[in-house]
Amino acid sequence: MKICKGLTRITVQLPRAGIVVKFPHLYPSLAFGYFWESFFELWKTRGWRIARKIVLGNDIEVMGTVLWCFGAGIAGNWSEFIFYLKTRHGFCQPTFFSFFGLFNIQKYGQPLGDDDDKLPRFYWYELYPTLGSKAVDGHTWLDADNFIRDRGGLRIVDYGGRKTRELLIGHRFKLGTLRD
Ligand SMILES: Nc1ncnc2c1ncn2[C@@H]1O[C@H](COP(=O)(O)OP(=O)(O)OP(=O)(O)O)[C@@H](O)[C@H]1O
Ligand SMILES: [Mg+2]
């Protein structure tokens, strides 16, 4: 068993059982810090609407907000589950189950070795320019830890982010047929 802390999820890897359990990575003290240090100050100087937008947040994928600190991992888990359920995308490592985003069960895959840990970024260099600015998510695609080997090919394990899902949909067939 191996436990790995990602930015938005904490994963418990169980290779013998062939699964990974993903829990949201929550940041209560960070959220409290943002709130305590900035919220009232911003409210006083720039008004309630701005204070609410900047500190509490209105987009769950924007880091540095209270919403992100508590919600990003849950939203990522839930999006991953729903995306796989709807698309059965061949490039995604299957997500079998989600308990409302509070924990997910995903199929385990072999981490990439030194020989092929540059492959994902080459995919990204090739694919993202064709979709325009909406599909830029280097955080996921430039980090080889977000990819594994399974069923004889490269698969993505971290597809909770909106832009990554856009790229996966935009290149559904190409990603399905790419072979290294
Ligand atoms: N299905 C899987 N098989 C094997 N290892 C996995 C699997 N899913 C996740 N991992 C490992 O756990 C790590 C964290 O998982 P994941 O990337 O889904 O979380 P995250 O918090 O969204 O990541 P990030 O830090 O990139 O935002 C991965 O980088 C990978 O090393
Ligand atoms: Mg990741």
Structure, explained:
There is one protein chain. The model has no long low-confidence stretch (mean pLDDT 90). This protein has one domain (2-27, 62-177). It has seven helices and eight strands, in the order E-E-E-H-H-H-E-E-E-H-H-E-E-H-H. By secondary structure, the protein is of the alpha+beta class. The chain has helices spanning 28-46, 48-56, 66-87, 119-127, 138-141, 162-170, 172-177, and strands spanning 2-5, 9-14, 19-24, 95-98, 104-107, 110-111, 147-150, 153-156. Strand 1 (2-5) and strand 2 (9-14) form a beta hairpin. The structure holds adenosine-5'-triphosphate (ATP) and magnesium ion (MG). The site of magnesium ion has 4 residues, from loops.
Give the strand content.
15-25%
Mean pLDDT: 90
Structural class: alpha+beta
Query: Roughly how much helix do the residues carry, as a percent range?
Result: 40-55%
Number of domains: 1
Strand order of the largest sheet: 1-2-3-5-4
Question: What is the C-alpha radius of gyration, as a whole number of Å?
Answer: 18 Å
Give the biggest beta sheet: 5 strands, antiparallel
* Total strand segments: 8
Q: Runs with pLDDT <50, length 5+?
A: none
How many angstroms separate the termini?
29 Å
Question: What small molecules does this complex bind?
Answer: adenosine-5'-triphosphate, magnesium ion
How is this fold's topology laid out?
Layout: E1 2-5, E2 9-14, E3 19-24, H1 28-46, H2 48-56, H3 66-87, E4 95-98, E5 104-107, E6 110-111, H4 119-127, H5 138-141, E7 147-150, E8 153-156, H6 162-170, H7 172-177
Antiparallel strand pairs: 1-2, 2-3, 3-5, 4-5, 6-7, 7-8
Helix pairs in contact: 1-2, 1-3
Bound molecules: adenosine-5'-triphosphate and magnesium ion (MG).
